[in-house]
């Protein structure tokens, strides 16, 4: 599937989904609403084909997904995509998987509804907002000017420049949110879909079940941090982004330790955080 990229309209205004540039103000001085929010319910303008292509590429070749950021910067003067199609599509997929987990492990409609709300608004949206907010305030400050003592330190440049100064690159909250929701997609594939299909096998009290069950978590979170690294590595004004891969090493050590008796699917399956009982169908 080949995505199509349309040229921006002449009356489009850039928004950083964070600091508001002077070009995003109305003539009466009021601030315009960021395009992301203005397009929340304009479904005909959403590029779902691009969203599907990104989801496929995130599993096969995640580096391709973030090659588009230069196009958006050159044409719309913003790094992030003001298109909620990816968020809507992944939320719909989470709805389907939540219903599947609920039918298999929940008792009644109320618990299935609870699982659905927890999956979409808790696991996906709330977690993505928390991660993107943390990255917005920490990643830029640590990796924007450069880490003190490491090569590439630029003492004159910072993350946040003076208001209306377009010469200083800024880390946009919208882009941080883009990275977070795209990094969540591989987690959904491995822990919400593959784990659900393999749950009757990997939750058994056998070492082989423990090995492959825990391996799913290693692959899922490994993908999460790799996609996060690729997202921020695509921005030319960030330095030493390889530091974002450090959690992969830490989780690899935790995975090795877990092989001595900690079955992750039995204790950390997504449905457990919504109050379901795995013993119902296992």
From TrEMBL:
Its main location: membrane. The chain crosses the membrane at residues 86-105, 117-139, 179-198, 210-232, 244-264. The keyword Cell membrane does not apply. It is found in: Membrane. Residues 1-27 are annotated as: Disordered. It is a multi-pass membrane protein. InterPro entries: UNC-50 (IPR007881). This is UNC-50 family protein. It comes from Aureobasidium uvarum. The lineage of its organism: Eukaryota, Fungi, Dikarya, Ascomycota, Pezizomycotina.
């Amino acid at each position: 599937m080949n995505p199509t990229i349309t040229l921006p309209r002449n009356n489009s205004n850039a928004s950083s989904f964070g600091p508001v540039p002077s070009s995003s103000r109305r003539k009466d001085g009021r601030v315009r609403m960021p395009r992301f929010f203005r397009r929340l319910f304009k479904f005909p303008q959403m590029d779902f084909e691009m969203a599907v292509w990104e989801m496929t590429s995130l599993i096969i070749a995640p580096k391709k997904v973030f090659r588009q950021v230069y196009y958006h910067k050159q044409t719309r003067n913003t790094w992030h995509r003001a298109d909620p199609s990816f968020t809507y599509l992944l939320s719909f997929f989470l709805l389907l998987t939540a219903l599947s987990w609920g039918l298999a492990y929940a008792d009644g409609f109320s618990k299935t509804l609870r699982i659905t709300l927890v999956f979409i608004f808790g696991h996906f949206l709330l977690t993505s907002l928390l991660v993107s907010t943390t990255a917005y305030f920490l990643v830029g400050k640590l990796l924007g000017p450069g880490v003190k003592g490491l090569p590439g330190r630029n003492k004159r440049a910072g993350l946040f420049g003076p208001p209306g100064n377009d010469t200083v690159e800024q880390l946009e909250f919208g882009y941080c949110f883009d990275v977070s929701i795209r990094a969540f997609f591989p987690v959904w594939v491995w822990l919400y879909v593959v784990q659900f299909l393999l749950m009757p096998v990997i939750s058994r009290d056998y070492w082989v079940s423990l090995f492959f069950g825990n391996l799913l978590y290693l692959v899922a979170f490994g993908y999460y941090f790799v996609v996060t690294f690729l997202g921020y590595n695509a921005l030319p004004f960030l330095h030493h982004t390889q530091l974002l891969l450090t959690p992969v090493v830490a989780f690899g050590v935790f995975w090795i330790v877990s092989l001595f008796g900690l079955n992750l699917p039995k204790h950390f399956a997504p449905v457990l955080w919504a109050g379901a009982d795995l013993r119902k169908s296992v």
